[in-house]
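Working notes for the structural subgroup meeting. M.R. asked for a predicted model of this chain before we commit to crystallization trials. I am recording the input and output together here so anyone reviewing the notebook later can reproduce the run.

Input as submitted:
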Amino acid sequence: MINFKATKKMLQRWTSQIIDFNKLIHGFLKLLRYINDWKKYIQLNAAEPIRLINTYPRVHDKTKETHFDKHYFYQNIWAFKKIYESECDSHIDVGSKIDFIGFLTTITKVTFIDIRPLILNLDNLGSKKGNILALPYKDGSVKSLSCLHVAEHIGLGRYGDSLDPLGTQKAAKELSRVLAPNGTLYFSVPIGKPKLCFNAHRIHSTNQILNYFSDLDLIELSGVDDNGNFIRNINKDILDSCVYGCGFFIFSKIK
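Returned structure, recorded in token form:
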């Protein structure tokens, strides 16, 4: 039996890489509203002249709520607070969002590792081109390490990396290798019923991730459920029941 809802979502994912049909369908009426606002604006006292060459239509920003990605929003706050409280004098991050990296530089020295070099001139920031499957560090040499919403992409070619079905598992092994004794790893990935959404990401169960880091000790498991709720010290069964939740893990390599 055809699942029409799932089929529709799949078609939207494919076509959105060429054209966003949701914006196309709703955009026409919104463009008419934009023109109407233009007419109203130029009739207002002290209104600046509007030249066609300078117009910049933004017709999709009138929303009832401020939209944000709950996974990234909560994970960045969670990880930043943990790293701040650790009082580490330096930190290594592998591939996380650069706004998170920028905020981290206000509290410690940060080295950012990614296959795509980050060209920035910012105090307390160093950047190295590197691969999460072959990090440029010796065994057990990194005391404070983060990798947030990254490992689920490894091996899918999305960001120019090589195709590898074991990409996430190998990334976990490499992060474990470089983590120092008594060091701390802040890690997050999508959690739910395991599946591959090629080539966007993989979704893992909590047990898969715990097995990938079997040589480390789990210090904390928090996360975001399907309703967008951040739950500190979440029960792993709640995460595993999600369609697309996010697990926030703190691991340590205890001597």
